Structures are given as C-alpha cells and as structure tokens.
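Hello forum,

I keep getting stuck at the same step: I have a sequence, I want structure tokens, and every attempt I make locally crashes halfway through. Rather than fight my setup again tonight, could one of you with a working pipeline run this one for me? It's a single chain of 137 residues.
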Amino acid sequence: MTARPPQRSLPAPERFATRWRELAACRGIDLGVFFPERGASAGPARQVCAACPVRQPCLDYAVTNRITSGVWGGLTERERRALRSRWVRTSRRERDRAILAAEAAGYTEAVIGRSFGLSRTSVSRIVRNENDAGRPG
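Reply #2:
Ran it on my machine without issues. Output:
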C-alpha cells in the first residue's frame, strides 16, 4: 500500500482571492466596454459592475496594483486615484500614530525604524513633526 501525497488546498479566502476573475460579471463581455475612449461614457461598464458579485475584490486588485486605465470594480481611473490617495493618507496617519506610541513607550528610533521598515531619520522626522505640530505657536 502506498501513501497518497497530502492534498494541498488553499483556505477558502485565498481560494476565492485567486479565482475572483472566474466569478466576475464581465467575464466574456467585450473588454472595450471597460476601456472607453477618452470622453466616452463609463456607464455601460458601471452597469455590468453594479451586478457583479466580485466587485470589491476587482476594485481592490486595481487599487493595490495601481492600474491606471479602464473601469475596475465600477470605478474609473480618476475615481480609483482619489480612493488610493485617501487610503495612502489614512495608512500613513495610522503608521505615524503607532510610531508615536512606540516612541512614547520608550523604544529607540532605530528599533522603531526596523519595525516599520523605515530609516532612523524617517522616524525622527515623524516624531519631530508631531512635536512641532503639538507646540503652541
């Protein structure tokens, strides 16, 4: 009797993440709909996206991979750019709060920098800017 090799299977969220395109409402539709000419309406693409069960993973993919053309997740390039800008600002604010909390807890700038993948100089700048902003003018 020979042993079977172990079955390798991704957990459900990862399986879904890798096959969201297979479930997309746009599958099989002319891609030209999602890449309208300059000045043309994105309305037809938005209609397809409105009924799509994987709209959010599609949008996440486009934003994460900085895709700059076409309609993804129901949003145009310009709308995704604005969304990404807000996301980046929010992420940086959260990172800076965590850095300030670590600094207040007594961690050195070098240790904080290694934890966040930043240089000591960057950590110093974040702490200095917060201290400058908190001082009465």
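The first helix runs from residue 12 to 19. If your local run keeps crashing, start a new thread with the error log.
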